[in-house]
Automatic annotation (TrEMBL):
Keywords from the named record: DNA-binding, Transcription, Transcription regulation
GO molecular function, one term: DNA binding
Name of the protein described by the UniProt record: CRP-like cAMP-binding protein
Native source species: Neorhizobium alkalisoli
One GO term (biological process): regulation of DNA-templated transcription
InterPro entries on file: cNMP-bd_dom_sf, HTH_CRP, RmlC-like_jellyroll, WH-like_DNA-bd_sf, WH_DNA-bd_sf
Residues annotated as domain HTH crp-type: 150-216
Length: 245
């Protein structure tokens, strides 16, 4: 079975060689099946995860049990984000939505790296800034865009973080992530499929025309991705990509 190297995670890939050498001994490879919880709100952080494949969600849960996605992460970052500031408890529920794999480091070792390696800490802090921009634009999109556009944005973000063009997603799961009713998801998928942006079947969505889908999403998509590139370019000396567009 092929095991992806740690540098398939974009943050680990841009670390300077001496910083990466400090991190590698602390990493444990782990398979991450769909549905596994990487953290639960209010519970202690045990590990910090660096995905090399797959997608996870940071979820908010109301006191009545209603859930919605606050942010999405994959090989572009790490989770839980609160570990960067020394917070010892999860502030989100964190769940894998598309199976994948990655590496984890115990929380205490992560904190030691943050305190002992300036290069490592700078990359981690920049990554959280990029993630916070994504969270802000998710709130904006939820407020000003209709379900069709919000779904287009979300599919583009998922597509950015997977290998290939297939997304194994169900209507029910998408409805929970977007905090809308299932019929609204079905209607929105019909709109996107009718425009030949995607092909939707039971439990799977295939990207057909990404460029057209980006145009349809308009200002709902692109700014957080550009900010990620800007924040990370300082470390690599070249422009990096989070998106496939």
């Amino acid at each position: 079975m092929h095991v992806a190297p740690p540098t398939d995670n974009k943050l680990l890939a841009i670390l300077a060689a001496e910083n990466l050498a400090q991190v590698i001994p602390q990493l444990e490879h782990i398979d991450l099946p769909r549905g596994i919880w990487l953290g639960e709100y209010g519970k202690p952080i045990e590990h910090v995860y660096f995905l090399t494949d797959g997608i996870g969600s940071a979820l908010l849960t109301s006191p009545e049990g209603h859930k919605a996605e606050a942010g999405v992460f994959g090989c572009d970052g790490y989770i839980p984000s609160s570990a960067v500031s020394g917070v010892e408890y999860n502030i989100y529920d964190i769940r894998m939505q598309i199976e994948g794999s990655g590496y984890r480091v115990p929380y205490e070792q992560f904190r030691q790296l943050m305190e002992s390696s300036r290069g490592f800490s700078k990359v981690m802090i920049r990554a959280i800034e990029a993630f916070s921009v994504q969270l802000g634009y998710t709130a904006l999109s939820n407020a000003v865009h209709d379900t069709n556009v919000r779904l287009a944005r979300w599919l583009l973000m998922c597509h950015d973080r997977v290998k290939g063009d297939e997304l194994p997603l169900t209507h029910d799961f998408i409805a929970m992530m977007l905090a809308v009713r299932r019929p609204s998801v079905t209607t929105a998928l019909h709109v996107l499929e009718g425009n030949r942006f995607i092909y939707a079947e039971r439990g799977r969505i295939t990207m057909r025309d990404r460029e057209a889908l980006e145009e349809f999403a308009s200002d709902a998509y692109g700014r957080p991705e550009a900010e990620w590139r800007r924040l990370m370019a300082d470390f690599s000396g070249k422009e990096l990509q989070i998106s496939k567009g």
